[in-house]
């Protein structure tokens, strides 16, 4: 008698979301204003504006750019605005903050395209392992989007999951 194998995972009704399909493709770079400050402390407007004029902004073409200051200096808001204005139409995206802030913003934009209503009352697994660097920001973001609509949310692989959320039944 031949043994029949039943794929319980396939029959479980579990939906899998692979965040890699939403991965924002493009080079990530940063501009640290600290490098433009006098003694890493003071922004001299004349020197800063000269740097703005002389800088080759095309080096940021189609890149994702984080603009921040890593030193404990007070940088006027207009300085960040000047950099952003020069990157407008050149970079794919510009954010204020470090590379982690950039990554969070990219994932938020990417996951805004997710049709959460497609997962209403379903069991959902967010795939955990992969080839691309999916940030913790992406997992946090997708969790907050899905928890209000799903029956349950899990992390990992459908055959081996970590429970994250389960809606209470009345």
How many helices does DSSP assign? Answer: 4
Task: State the distance separating the first and last CA atoms.
Answer: 45 Å
Largest sheet: 4 strands, mixed
Relative strand content = 15-25%
Overall strand count? 7
Oligomer: single chain
Q: If strands are numbered along the chain, what order do they take across the biggest sheet?
A: 1-5-6-7
Spatial extent as radius of gyration: 22 Å
Q: Give the overall shape.
A: elongated
Uncertain segments: none
Number of domains: 2
Helix and strand composition category: alpha/beta
What's the helical proportion of residues?
25-40%
Along the chain, the helix and strand elements come as EEHEHEHEHEE
Q: Residue-averaged pLDDT, rounded?
A: 91
């Amino acid at each position: 008698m031949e043994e029949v194998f039943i794929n319980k995972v396939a029959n479980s009704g579990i939906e899998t979301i692979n965040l890699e399909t939403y991965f924002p493709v493009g080079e990530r770079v940063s501009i640290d204003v600290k490098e433009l400050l006098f003694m890493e402390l003071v922004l001299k407007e004349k020197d800063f504006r000269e740097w703005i004029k002389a800088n080759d902004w095309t080096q940021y073409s189609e890149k994702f750019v984080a603009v921040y200051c890593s030193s404990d200096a007070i940088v006027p808001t207009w300085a960040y605005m000047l950099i952003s204005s020069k990157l407008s139409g050149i970079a794919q995206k510009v954010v204020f903050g470090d590379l982690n802030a950039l990554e969070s913003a990219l994932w938020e934009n990417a996951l805004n395209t997710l049709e959460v209503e497609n997962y209403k009352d379903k069991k959902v697994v967010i795939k955990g392992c992969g080839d691309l660097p999916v940030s913790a920001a992406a997992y946090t973001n997708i969790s907050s989007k899905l928890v209000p609509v799903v029956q349950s949310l899990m992390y990992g692989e459908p055959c081996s999951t970590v429970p994250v959320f389960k809606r209470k039944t009345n």
